[in-house]
């Protein structure tokens, strides 16, 4: 699958590796996904590319006010929103629109936030949004961000950004 090139004036993409783990539920077995990624845009418009270890694009999710699509090699599929896309592709809703903000250590705009007092030497932000605990305390020092949802089924998303 060939992904369309980004516009030359687009903000630099965030790149790294992500690992997603969804706990077992009464209706589905536990599952995990790990891939390299490139993320560009913001909560209203953006794209997320997932890559194989050899650099082949495995999936391309794109969203804008005009719609949400996922192309995983069999042609693009349209979705009503990013929650529907993540439920279909990952088996559970993951706030993909929040990732551009969370990976910068910032809350998702327009969504209530509760701040935690950061512990440890790094002092990076930790906060709660939409039932997710976001820990960006290691973002500056090591490039790590972790988002965790404890509600069943529990979901853990760990991301390490390339420097």
Textual characterization of the structure:
The protein has a single domain (14-161), classed as Lipoprotein localisation LolA/LolB/LppX (outer membrane lipoprotein receptor (LolB), chain A, Clam). The protein is mainly beta and 163 residues long. A hairpin with a 5-residue loop joins strand 3 (46-51) and strand 4 (57-64). It starts with 13 loop residues before the first strand and ends with a strand. It has an 11-stranded antiparallel sheet. The radius of gyration is 16 Å and the shape is globular. It has 3 helices and 11 strands. Keywords: Cell outer membrane, Chaperone, Lipoprotein, Membrane, Palmitate, Protein transport, Signal, Transport. It is found in: Cell outer membrane. Monomer. Belongs to the LolB family.
Measure the end-to-end span: 27 Å
Rg, Cα atoms, Å: 16 Å
Specify the CATH architecture: Clam
Which strand order spans the largest sheet, edge to edge or round the barrel?
A: 6-5-4-3-2-1-11-10-9-8-7
Q: Using DSSP, what is the number of strands?
A: 11
Helix/strand structural class: mainly beta
Poorly predicted parts: 2-9
Look at the structure and name the CATH superfamily: Lipoprotein localisation LolA/LolB/LppX
Number of domains: 1
List the helices and strands and how they pair.
Elements: E1 14-22, E2 31-41, E3 46-51, E4 57-64, E5 67-71, E6 76-79, H1 82-90, H2 99-102, E7 114-116, E8 126-129, E9 132-135, H3 139-142, E10 144-149, E11 155-161
Antiparallel strand pairs: 1-2, 1-11, 2-3, 3-4, 4-5, 5-6, 7-8, 8-9, 9-10, 10-11
What is the compact description of this entry?
Its main location: membrane. This protein is mainly beta. It has one domain: outer membrane lipoprotein receptor (LolB), chain A (Clam), CATH 2.50.20.
């Amino acid at each position: 699958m060939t992904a369309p090139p980004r516009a030359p004036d687009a903000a630099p993409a965030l790149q790294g590796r992500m690992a997603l783990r969804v706990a077992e539920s009464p209706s589905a077995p536990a599952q995990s996904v790990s891939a390299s990624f490139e993320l560009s845009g913001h909560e209203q418009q953006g794209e997320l590319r997932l890559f194989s270890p050899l650099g082949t694009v495995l999936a391309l999710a794109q969203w804008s006010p005009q719609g949400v699509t996922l192309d995983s090699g069999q042609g693009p599929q349209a979705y009503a929103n990013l929650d529907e896309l993540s439920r279909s592709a990952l088996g559970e809703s993951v706030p993909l629109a929040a990732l551009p903000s969370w990976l910068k250590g910032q809350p998702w705009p327009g969504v209530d936030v509760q701040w935690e007092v950061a512990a440890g030497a790094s002092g990076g932000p930790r906060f709660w949004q939409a039932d997710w605990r976001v820990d960006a305390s290691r973002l500056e020092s090591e490039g790590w961000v972790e988002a965790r949802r404890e509600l069943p089924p529990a979901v853990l998303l760990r991301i390490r950004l390339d420097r």
